[in-house]
Amino acid sequence: MRELLLLRHAKSAWDVPGLEDHARDLAPRGRKAAKKIGRLLAREGLLPDLVLCSTAVRAVRTLELVQAELPRPLEVRHLDELYLASEEAMLKLVRAQDDGIRSLMLVGHDPGFHRLALLLVGAQAPAAVRTGLVQKFPTGALARLRFPVEHWAEVGPGGAELLAFWKPRELD
In the CATH scheme, what is the code of domain 2-170? Predict the structure, then answer.
């Protein structure tokens, strides 16, 4: 079994005119949401073996705030290629992971995250419909996917079970 956590960066700030997109930080609402997700991960015992995070400031800051709520540090790699990555690029990245990693988290952006989640789960999967994943992957949301495979290279479209889809506004 393999498990993938998809964490979309929390709500970003738009209050600095002319600031390039990659450099945007979190809004106060985003900081609060990231902490909620961190507490959720700690409470659920969801501490991935590896985190791959976009280099965008809002993604990095989201992960920092999440990690501050966890009982131990996570192994993190910051990847430029996750910044606004397509679902195909992210799937390729997931498939390339070492099989010693059982649980992987990606921290990144939409629309790629929404498309990747729907590709892996299937847009018509009951859990995707029930949780609202079909409609939207909001900022700060976290999807937990499980794959009944032994190797990351076997992860593919429609092969995931959506175990949970959490939205910060629904927590605490």
Answer: 3.40.50.1240
